[in-house]
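help with this.
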Amino acid sequence: MENSILIGGFGGQGVMIFGQLLCYTAAETTDKYVTYFPSYSMEKRGGTANCYVTISDEPIGAPKAEMTDYVVALNSLAMNKFVNNVYSGGTMFINSSVCTEKPDRTDITFVEVPASDVAREIGDSRVTNLCMIGAFIAYTDILPPEKVLATAFKKLGAKHPEFNALNEAAFKRGMEIGKAAKAKK
């Protein structure tokens, strides 16, 4: 089975980290094939950023797809820009803290995750992406959650171990949101 994911937002929101954590987890802890294709705007912070991730049981033909199974939008700009990149029957995860209006598509599922609000409640807005990853993993079951969290500790915690507790709290809260959304399917 092949799963294509497009993650979009502003630079500085952890878009690339989201994609990298999926890729590192798949490559280092499973026998799946994986590709990662980042795309940056010219600005360092505040510009648009997105990445394409494909995780598959079979070799992957191309690192970037026009249409994807899943889109994760960390802001309204990404939501509006990429809503038409989701296959009919696919799923779009939106950061409902900042995406206040859902697009009009009725042939896809929207999973609303108040990730920015959760991150602020936990104590640091920099863990918004970990909340979104938790919701994504719980909803899709693409990768084992304990392995994703272990990868976050290994890759992010090596440089900033003081964030491990915050990252874990955000990830687990996101998991709760993702599980609740999945139960409503």
Observations:
- Helices lie at 15-29, 76-82, 115-122, 128-140, 145-155, 164-183.
- The chain has one domain: 2-183.
- The chain has a mean pLDDT of 93.
- Residues 164-183 form the longest helix (20 residues).
